[in-house]
Amino acid sequence: MAIVLGPNQYGKAEVRVVAVDRSTPRHTFVDLNVSSSLRGDFTAAHTSGDNAHVLTTDAQKNTVFAFARDGVGTPEEFGLRLARHFAGSYDWISGARVAVESYGWDRITVAGRPHDHAFSRTGDEVRTAVVTVDGSGPGRTAHVLAGLTGLVVLKTTGSEFRGFPRDRYTTLAGTDDRVLATAVTARWRYTGTDADELPFDELFTGVRTTLLETFASTHSLALQQSLHAMGEAVLERFPHIAEIRMSMPNKHHFLQDLSAYGLANTPEGGAVVYHADDRPYGLIEGSVLRDDVPSAEIAWQGTPGFC
Ligand SMILES: O=c1[nH]c(=O)c2[nH]c(=O)[nH]c2[nH]1
């Protein structure tokens, strides 16, 4: 029996880079959180402290800032540039994973006009991109996962949940009309990496819109059904997407019992009052995929959780 080093990777996590285009008085900027991980032969560093193969995490951080100087472009393209640079930059670096979070900002409106250089954060929603490059020679592969987290949605009707089995612990009443709310995390894998074929910004907006429209227009019999419908609509509309994975917490809204104060809690004669529970929450997770596209597990390696 021998004890050996298993899979490993290392890099700089959460490099916060803000790149401002000041070339005209109307500034634009990107606000990113970039994490790099290198894969390859780093055995000696682990087993004997020999750092001859260790491209420092400090240099990885500096590379992110240096590349931002040339303009960032889309998160997907920025990730591709960085991951391609790192993978094969030394013989022993066989692959790289670059994860990019992109934070949105809106212009502040002053006297009815969007301001040139003052902004407000758009909220908790974050656009994500994860690029994985594997290999350095002609057999090199690259994968792009685009996505979003924190897309909080709610519908006040058009949602039912009933017909479930009842064991001795089942107390939930079935309902044909409830509030349905969730915070969508979604990641989708493109079939290619070519920015000319894949206008990443346009595709991101299109997928986001599709998720929203489908959530809104699906008469939901379960959050599971909404998740599936949302994924299916994305794959139907976007042929360059091979698969989509989603994680959707069920942000429960329970009807508040007002009877102790002698009040009814029905739509007649007043507002219907719910209490919004933040925990525990149901966690509904699933993927929707094309059955004729080969899977690419390496694209998901290092991406924690279900998606
Ligand atoms: O849409 C739902 N799916 C469930 O699996 C579930 N379980 C539960 O208690 N409420 C709900 N709602």
From TrEMBL:
One of its GO terms (molecular function) is urate oxidase activity. It comes from the Bacteria. GO terms for biological process: purine nucleobase metabolic process; urate catabolic process. The active site is at residues 12, 57, 252. 5-hydroxyisourate binds at residues 57, 161, 178, 224, 250. The keyword Oxidoreductase applies. Urate binds at residues 57-58, 161, 178, 224, 250. Pfam families: Uricase (PF01014). It catalyses: urate + O2 + H2O = 5-hydroxyisourate + H2O2. It is an enzyme of class 1 (oxidoreductase). Keywords: Oxidoreductase, Purine metabolism. Pathway: Purine metabolism; urate degradation; (S)-allantoin from urate: step 1/3. O2 binds at residues 57, 250. Its EC number is 1.7.3.3. InterPro entries: Uricase (IPR002042), Uricase_CS (IPR019842). The keyword Oxidoreductase applies. Belongs to the uricase family. Catalyzes the oxidation of uric acid to 5-hydroxyisourate, which is further processed to form (S)-allantoin. PANTHER family: URICASE. This is Uricase. It comes from Blastococcus haudaquaticus. The lineage of its organism: Bacteria, Bacillati, Actinomycetota, Actinomycetes, Geodermatophilales.
